[in-house]
Design brief:
Layout: E1 2-5, E2 16-19, H1 22-37, E3 79-82, E4 85-88, E5 94-97
Antiparallel strand pairs: 1-2, 3-4, 4-5
């Protein structure tokens, strides 16, 4: 526990209050700042909707596709250089090396 100034009170010294930890005091300072900026009301609730996305609106990430030359076997544009040879990441076709 430690004593610290209550944020927002006028005066040079202000009123002191006991806080259980540094984290609790920092949280009090942050909440006071958000109230001062008009983000939170006096009860600590947001003044405007914060734009939280519902879980059902979140799309899963798709894996990145490696784009390359068109494969002569499968026709996909997935030929890349692997160990000095042309390699198709879709079907495993190995082309020219060197």
């Amino acid at each position: 526990d430690f004593m610290a100034r209550v944020p927002g009170l006028p005066g040079e010294g202000g009123r002191l209050q006991t806080y259980p930890s540094t984290v609790a005091y920092l949280a009090t300072l942050i909440l006071h700042r958000y109230r001062t900026l008009g983000i939170l009301d006096a009860n600590g609730q947001p003044m405007n909707a914060m734009g939280i996305v519902a879980i059902d609106q979140v799309r899963p990430l798709e894996p990145a596709t490696l784009r390359g030359k068109v494969c002569p076997e499968c026709g996909n544009p997935t030929i890349i250089k692997k160990d000095g040879c042309e390699y198709c990441t879709s079907c495993g076709h190995i082309g020219a090396c060197g």
